[in-house]
Amino acid sequence: MSDDRQNVVDMAGTRVDDDHLLSMYVDNELDAERTIALISRLRSEPALRARLEVMEANDKRVKQLFAQSDNQVPEHLVPLVTAENVAVLGMTRRWQRWASVAVAASFATAMALVVDLSQTDVFNPMSMDPQLASALEQSPSRATGWDALDDERQFRSVLTFPAADGRWCREFLLSQGESHWRGVACRVGGEWVNQVVGSEIFLEQETQYRPAGAGDSEQVARFIDETATDVALGPQQEATLIGSGW
Amino acid sequence: MASLTAQQRQELIDELPRLKRFCLSLTSDPADADDLLQITVERLLEKGMPEDAHVAKWSHRVCRNLWIDEIRSRDVRSRYAQSESAVEGAGTTAANTDESVQLDRVSAAMERLPPEQRAALVQVAVEGCSYAEAAALLEVPIGTIMSRVARARKALAEDLEWSAEREA
Description:
heterodimer; A: alpha+beta; 10 helices; 39% helix; disordered N terminus; B: mainly alpha; Arc Repressor Mutant, subunit A; 8 helices; 0% strand
């Protein structure tokens, strides 16, 4: 086979070999003249035809590979994009930072969008009450499930971490009807004091989705970023701390 | 804070499946692809985009830059080794059909492609882009797409042929 038949000149003037030629043919990127010339060669050159068939078969398998079910978009992303007037809490990066803590891993999938409490139409639960304080005092952190409080409120501690100034702090979720909040409370002088609370859109296990009002803030995430040391407590450490009365 | 318009949000939702495949073409690992997609969506929601931006091109650019900036900085080599051995192990189980064995081989061969070739091949062969469309999306010259796709197909063919001969 002559060099002229093995190689052609493309539109940019670059010499391309048979593999490039076949690839362009597969992609319908050859001009008419070169397409006709290639078809003629394919009729007379079994090896070239076989190479084309291999390319086409591999393309088909690559398509199958990318069509497999585990390559689908995670369900929780569509409501995440749909929600308006919300701020995202960089959950993946946080997940990486807290990755050593089991409860934090599940927190990533149940994570949320936080909106600003300064808006007047959102109830601000910053004031601590005995039931919430008791839950913070005794309830272990968990990935799923809720503790029932009064007024049809539900509570879940998400994780426990030491603040840079030595205080113990807990990130928690609180829900009441259609309203949801994420907050951080720290133990100050033997009492639990809310440090920051944000109303939020809550994605529960990637399926449940609850809308919140307008406004946006990253205050909870910012507070944790600024306050926490890098290590959250593991379940056993946390249980020991709860058992000892903090 | 910049935010997406309603139309941009809808276009982004429509683009997510393709963006996921793009993530997979970059990372060649489903878990990494999910991470990259998540981070990309977060970044787009956080930073928004210009009102006149082409959502597909913009989101792909953000995705690719994040891959370069963040994902590549991880210690991917050990994870790559794990996933590669897992794929090879899966290919030797007796329960696999011929076709699934072939898909395993293709998956492993795709992992071994240089990322830029893999991304070009996926845009053209999977997404059905023309060379011009793929070039615009990946921000490289058309001739580069042509060359990368051809080299990817050649490498894939040789790799699969070698795999088949080795297992025969």
